[in-house]
Amino acid sequence: MIEEPPSTSPESKKGLGFFKKIKLFVRGLYKRVSYTPMNQRELSGVLKEAEEMNLIDKNILDMMEETLEFSSMQVRDVMIPRPQMIVVRHNEKPKEFLSRIIDSSHSRFPVVDEDSEEVKGILLAKELLPYGFDSSKSFYLDQVMRPVNFIPESKKLDSLLEEFRKKRYHMAIVVDEYGSVSGLVTIEDILEEIVGEIEDETDIDEETQILQVSDNEYLVPALIDLDDFNDEFGSKFMADDFDTIGGVVLKEFARFPALNESVEINGYKFTVVSASRRQIKKLRVKIKD
């Protein structure tokens, strides 16, 4: 609750004439009606009062509070760190990076120099479609990749969102004060800070679907219930500390893993193939002989 504008206590009104009391009452009422919050904390209090009075619903309140916080956030607060970026090497052939693109389910990928790690461009997954149906076409990354947009870590999110909208691009590469790549950010990362996690058809499938990719390899959603994982693979992972297989893998790493990092647990090899900055999303599970 916010602090209300100062009012005259009952004790101070003793001895006042009738018209004086009316005047003080009207003045207090005016201050309440015309009260202007002076900072973000007071404005948040006003919004919470409005929700308590049923002037706005809880979902609107949550979104408005996220928007208030959003206005003070910088790119470094939401970017995907460099170790978690899924990239395409400039010298790779499509058969070398295609499985990586499919596993990630992303639509845009930084193209990096194989030696210097410099980001040379952005590859859109849809640009590969014409080559998949016409084997006679020669494929060259330089011909299909898009220009790179570099931004500093300190850039404000509201400013970047406006830049995304005006210049009509959806991904930017984030650099630190020395010009080195520190991560990437997409328009989806920014919007999720306002409206929460955005899921598409692929995300919904990932919550329940286990895909077999070879005789002993599977793509598994990290949030699959541990009991369901045990039932599917005949394993005996214990659910004392975690409810999901992703939690078991994270505990074994004892830190947040980078993409394509692997760990072996009880005869199973787990490889991180998809992750956000907050959680592991998808694992490649190989059953060891």
The level of helicity is: 25-40%
Number of helices: 12
Overall strand count: 12
CATH hierarchy, class of the largest domain: Alpha Beta
Question: SSE order, as H and E?
Answer: HHHHEEHEEHHEHEEHHEEHHEEE
Radius of gyration: 27 Å
Terminal CA distance = 62 Å
How much strand? 15-25%
Can you tell me the number of structural domains? 3
Query: Taking all residues together, what is the mean pLDDT?
Result: 79
General description of the model:
- The protein is 38% helix and 20% strand.
- The protein is an alpha+beta fold.
- Helix 3 (40-52) packs antiparallel against helix 4.
- The protein has three domains: 10-70, no CATH class; 76-195, CBS-domain (Roll); 206-287, Uridine Diphospho-n-acetylenolpyruvylglucosamine Reductase, domain 3.
- The protein has twelve helices and twelve strands.
